[in-house]
Specification:
This is Putative oxidoreductase CzcO. The protein is an alpha/beta fold and about 190 residues long. Helix content is about 20%, strand content about 25%. The termini are far apart.
Length: about 190
Amino acid sequence: MSYSMTYDVIIIGGGQAGLALGFSLKQKNIPFVILDENEQTGMSWRKRYDSLRLFTPGSYSQLHGFHLKGDPKGFPDKNEIADYLAAFKIQNELPVHREKVIRLTQNERKQFLVTTPNKIYTAKQVVIATGAFHNPCVPKVHDGTAGFEIHASKYQNPSQIPNGNVLIVGAGNTGVQIASELSKTHQVTLS
């Protein structure tokens, strides 16, 4: 395990929030690095279900004035957002290191130690920008006899879902979009 240089700020997570913060820190000449476990910028968007679209128009989904391609009044899909984030990182030359953070501690001097499988980074401040729903919550709701069950994080498209009635639990953006899509091929109940 090797020690890396010390930064003023380490951002854990290279999605929208991490990149936007990185942009602001760079504008102020504050030494920082972004650590992200994904193999490329925007990958967390690419892994989501095939038909995912934003609920907000493209003109409201831009970071720091960086133009999002396409109709500004249209609703970008997941790949457009992934491409946009990757282009934003490149255009602004943001330092994203492809490393998974496995531990965050503080030393006796109150510096943060950010441990990855290969390095220990040191920082005065750390920002966790990994998103609110990084680990899906899958409650145990049946005894195994109720049939097929899938969490939205594993859902890609209707071909995964067996014939029959479908119950979708959760009426947030994801639940509503999936329910709308599945209602074309299944009898759907949204709870």
